Amino acid sequence: MDPIVLDSDKSAKSSRDVDVEDPKSLENGELSQPSTKKKNRRKERSRKKKLTSLDNQADDISGQVELLSLQDSLLSSNGPNTSFTAFTPFTPTISAENPLVNIAGLESSVSSPSKKRSKKKKNVALASIKKLSECNGELKEISSPGISEFLPETSEIPPVIPTDTVKVNPRNRRRAKPVSEYSSDFNHESITNVCDRKSSSNRKAKPQAMKPKPQHFENFPNSSQVRQKQGGTGSRSRTNRSSESMLNENKFDDHFQRELVEAMMKNQANVVKGFIRINQRNFREAYINNPDGSRDIIIDGVKDRNRALEGDEVAVLILPESQWKNTDGIQKVGKVIYILTQVHHRQAVGSLKKMQDNNSRVALFSPRDSRVPRLQIPMKECPGNPKDWENCLFNARIVEWNDVRYAKGQLIGDSFGVQGDIEAETRAILLENEIDGAPYDRSYQVFFPEPPFVPTENDFKGREDLRKLCIFTIDPSTAKDLDDAVSCEQLDNGNFKVGVHISDVTYFLREGTPLDREVAKRATTTYLVQRAYHMLPRELTMMCSLLPGEDKLAFSVFWEMTPDAEVVSHYFTRSVINSCSQLAYEHAQVMIDDPNYQWKEGEFPPIYGPWTVEDLKKVVLSLQSLAAIMRKHRFDTGALRVDQTKLMFHLDSAGEPENFAAYINKESHRLIEEFMLLANMTVATALQSRFPKLSFLRCHDEPQPDMLKKLADTLEKFGIVLDISSAGSLHSSLQRCKSDSNDTRFLALNSLCSRPMVRARYFCAASIDDVQYMKHYALNAPLYTHFTSPIRRYADVMVHRLLSALLGYSDELKWSVDYVNSIAANCNKMKFCAKKAGEQSNELFLALWVRKYGSIVEEAVVLDVKDRSFDALICSTGSNIRVYTDKLSASVEFKNDFVPQLSIVWSIDGTSQHSTQIVTMFSVVRVALRVSNTNLLKLEASLLPPIEQN
């Protein structure tokens, strides 16, 4: 690593500049004498300060011996030709010939009779020097790359000068300053003085060494103190020094080099990797999962997050134990030293306004997502009059981010609408979540048949003809992309032949075409309240959709099952089907609830072919009987389900929300769910057997044990026993609570139990060595994948291609592990983005509905209590909201003796009486919901007195 190189500035006039003297006069470590003029008082104070800093210097250096030894071993283990220059920005070459500190020089300097020091001060200094001597003896020689990148192109690499010599400005010899005074500020790094050899023959020659730059000081713990001592790195006026001293505090540390980071992770040198999660309510707090499964590692502050944004894969250096958190248990603290994979797209939606200091050069862009930094946008790039920016929405990208407080940004186009407008807000949701909502260009139509497409006998080759089988779809009433259909017929032996039929998208979507690449990029269909943004072009979506009365190409899975739902055998085939009807879940549910129901004209959807309502009802009831047994068996053998409230909105003719209701899962939903799960598991097992390295699978890791344990301990105080030993035991615990007939408590428990859960993810089989880590925790399935929705998920497209190769319908795949991993990573990212977009769309329409009525009163159940607020779940919407209590017209007291609780004393209107309300976990409270004054789409809640107080 490169030493710090300090150089004189030709135009330097500041009395605090650090300059380099002619090396010939410094060869023997002799102190150059200042002029005979009266000594500067500041320099005298500096010399006295030097004595007290020596002892600190010794402590700092000895504390770094172990770190330097670690670096040396890392470098050695990676071979002599491996260059790691980013462990710290600059590290000196240390050896017996070039020690970290020139002990002899320091001793002669301290003991010099010319120094008018007291005996006591000399003894203290000599004792400190002795400690430094011991440190020098422990240090090993560390390889250092060249420093040529910091020197002028014409300069030779200059000699290293002992660090106890004096730096002298050739034009102002009074400005002599012992360099050793700085060494305590740099721990194990020292400042090395360099000047060109040519200056040794001519004292008036211009020094040729390099001028120090700000980045030379950025990564040192005491860099701000050093800046205050040396007064900046160039010619600065006294009025600018205060801003210079703050420079480092607002600058990010340089990232380490990737090679070094990988070596440190390989050698387990307190460096771990993970995907960063930033607290939405407090952007200064970020976390990564601890690889050992214990409590999350916290990254405290934006500076230690070091330019990483939500979702980025980062390498984190674990800080010393003395810096760990110890609030409600020990928590490791780390800092980001490298961004391994930049997942976040570095764009944001927000508002634009003038800087508060009326800076005419830049405007301030404030992202809606507080986890993204504020951006300074050049005023010349901003549209029109700043007064016209009010309430407008803009999209901007990060161009450069070196300052903790602001990043340099660039607007992407003009304003795309005003806050509160449905279309503008929908556009904002898409932009924030990196969802491409633009229709496909017509040029892509050359890559699939021209609609309307009617398959011919040539398309049927190699397919099983199932057009005479009673097959139909069951989906939401508004569904257009019908991926799956079902069938069921009873065999002569009393068993059932059950079929799941999935649209054969890969027959049309050819691998490697420009269309395929664009579909892979979009990765999923995104469902918002008022519309869906399809993964496939609209024409191809309808071509693949299993619409009733049309011949469609499909991939089918058949099982022979006993009446007790035991699978006897199964097989896969490509097929051609003709769905006889498009049922909604409501139609199937009526058949299950009331098999004898007499359908009125127009109530039941059209039926194509020779089939009747009775035929379809027979199939539905057979499937329901099998699905109920399958579901019970799944949960009896260890599966888990944690339900979350989903909303359905009814819109008026103008697209405004008219009302909403919670989405309720019934037997008809669970019927389809069971057979889709069975199909996915069956395909996963087949693929892993045939393609053990390239299988495209989906796993769900166990929840974070510390969080789950903490939740179980908390619930025990409320008399709730939560068995967290397995997914099945957790499910059983929740079901016991459900049987208590306390709906609000069960809602709260589901919400609380979802927090420790980790997201399921796609992966390439080769990326996981141990098969036990391939399992799906919630489903309690050893292998799982997604096969049943290729119209709306690219992951399923990958699985279909693997299955096609397995069955010999296509050539052997020539995929690499890296390729499959990259597709899996993008599918994971875009699936999560689509999920967030759907949730934000719900929040948008809920806020619009509340705004329409001004304010609404809702019942909420408390999830967590803090000293001046509590978090609650709105029972009717499933929304989480924070309710503040510090501005209530009531007396509020926080207690945390046994469980956290708020004691709120309300005054009863019109009387002198008071009533006390206790708010703790699971308390049911009334809140008034309203739209925020500052954010038209943010709901705020205020606590209302208990109903009996009104």
TrEMBL record:
GO terms for molecular function: 3'-5'-RNA exonuclease activity; RNA binding. One of its GO terms (biological process) is mRNA catabolic process. It holds the Pfam family RNB. Residues 181-193, 220-230 have a biased composition (Polar residues). Residues 463-809 form the RNB domain. Keywords: Exonuclease, Hydrolase, Nuclease, RNA-binding. It comes from the Eukaryota. SMART domains: RNB. Residues 36-51 have a biased composition (Basic residues). Residues 235-245 have a biased composition (Low complexity). GO terms for cellular component: P-body. Residues 7-27 have a biased composition (Basic and acidic residues). PROSITE patterns: RIBONUCLEASE_II. Residues 1-58, 153-251 are annotated as: Disordered. Belongs to the RNR ribonuclease family. PANTHER family: DIS3-LIKE EXONUCLEASE 2, RIBONUCLEASE. This is DIS3-like exonuclease 2. It comes from Frankliniella occidentalis. The gene is LOC113202498.
